[in-house]
Design goal:
The complex is a heterodimer of chains A (221) and B (146).
Chain A lengths: L6 H16 L11 H5 L4 H9 L3 H14 L6 H14 L10 H22 L4 E5 L2 E7 L7 H20 L5 H11 L4 H8 L3 H18 L7
Antiparallel strand pairs in A: 1-2
Helix pairs in contact in A: 4-5, 4-6, 5-6, 8-9, 8-10
Chain B lengths: L10 H15 L2 H10 L4 H43 L4 H19 L13 H13 L13
Helix pairs in contact in B: 4-5
Classes of the chains: A mainly alpha (221), B mainly alpha (146).
């Protein structure tokens, strides 16, 4: 069991580091502030830590990648991108954070970023002439358009429906999945389902295993 | 991870956070057992991931080398440009002297210092900079040379 700080703690720490770098201190060649560099693992330490990952660690990373994967960025690409960013210094690993948690948080952040980019990516629309389409394209406003937002919402809706459909035979599990998506706390979910802590933990395990089995490489439409 | 205060960018992100946290907190034995149950071979998977990592490391190292080479080339170019800008203080004094002489010849310009040889090198350079800023200095750096 990994007993170091939770992902949310790491996220806060990395965000604070990012905030420091954004206020304009001198940057090194890798785009990392001096403050970040002082409290971060060196590149050699990162390489050593990743080389030292156990088979179990790699399995954990594969599963985390699948949870954060989306059609815009498949699981394998997500993990690969996290590794590259760790190596090229565009993401720093705080000294007290182990490599698995660092890479997990990196994947989460990359997935969020990719999703935002996909929403903002302008669609190229052919300009049609009387003789047919030409090579000229309209390049719409790069701000997230209504169509992109609708497409994104549709995808999220399909994913949500697919995931909930896995638990049609288990109302408590379905409530937990739905409640988690809605941001309910564990305590609220236990109260909602009437499960005690042990039964709730067991149900969560069932939920995760069923999702893993159905979408081993991450959800795809 | 499932608290209402969790600022997941999207609702489904909260579920992903929850699942990820569970995986990170599971025992090694559980993780391996589940993976094997699904037909996975942890050792083989690790070998594939390590190979992917080493390939990525090589690519990043090559990019860093290319970046370092470009940086060194830019540094050399900057150093050459910097050397080109080194000021010959004798020339600077000659230029200032020429300006002072021109002012004294009734051009309407009044300069606080009448003799450049009473000024320090820094003062000479400072005055030339100020004159240049005021647009009163000939663009030709050769002007005033004897």
């Amino acid at each position: 069991m990994r007993t170091s700080k939770g992902v949310s703690d790491i996220r806060r720490h990395m965000s604070a580091q990012g905030a420091l770098s954004r206020i304009g201190e001198r940057k090194g060649t890798e785009g990392v502030s001096l403050q970040e560099a002082a409290s971060a693992k060196s590149r050699a330490e990162i390489v050593e830590a990743i080389r030292g990952l156990s088979p179990t660690d790699w399995v954990r990373l594969k599963k985390v990648a699948a949870y954060y994967a989306r059609p815009a960025i498949p699981a394998q690409d997500l993990l690969q991108e996290a590794l590259v960013r760790a190596l090229d210094g565009s993401r720093v690993c705080p000294v007290h954070v182990d490599a698995v948690r660092f890479l997990a948080e990196a994947m989460r952040s990359i997935a969020d970023g990719e999703q935002e980019k996909a929403e903002r990516r302008p669609a190229l629309v052919p300009i049609e002439e009387s003789g047919g389409a030409t090579e000229a394209m309209n390049c719409p406003d790069p701000a997230p358009g209504v169509e992109a937002r609708i497409a994104q919402a549709e995808q999220e809706s399909r994913m949500r429906a697919d995931l909930l459909a896995l638990f049609e035979d288990d109302p408590a599990a379905k409530d937990i999945v739905e409640g988690t998506i809605e941001g309910m706390t564990a305590e609220e979910l236990r109260e909602l389902t009437g499960l005690d802590r042990t039964a709730y933990d067991s149900k969560r395990k069932l939920i995760r295993r069923r999702i893993d089995k159905r979408y081993p490489e991450g959800w795809q439409p | 991870m499932t608290g209402k205060n969790d600022k997941a960018a999207r609702p489904l992100g909260r579920l992903a956070d929850s699942l990820a946290e569970d995986i990170l907190n599971m025992s090694d034995a559980e993780v391996l057992a589940e993976f094997r149950e699904g037909g996975g071979d942890p050792e083989q998977h690790a070998a594939e991931m390590r190979a992917m990592f080493e390939k990525g490391l090589l690519a990043v190292n090559k990019a860093r080398l290319a970046s370092a080479k470009a940086g060194a080339a830019a540094g050399r170019a900057a150093a050459r440009a910097s050397v080109g800008n080194i000021v010959d203080i004798a020339d600077a004094r000659a230029r200032l002297r020429a300006v002072i002489e021109h002012a004294n010849s009734g051009s309407g310009l009044t300069l606080a210092a009448r003799k450049e040889d009473e000024l320090s090198d820094a003062d000479v350079l400072g005055m030339l900079e100020e004159l240049a800023e005021l647009g009163l200095l000939d663009d030709d750096p050769e002007a005033g040379k004897s």
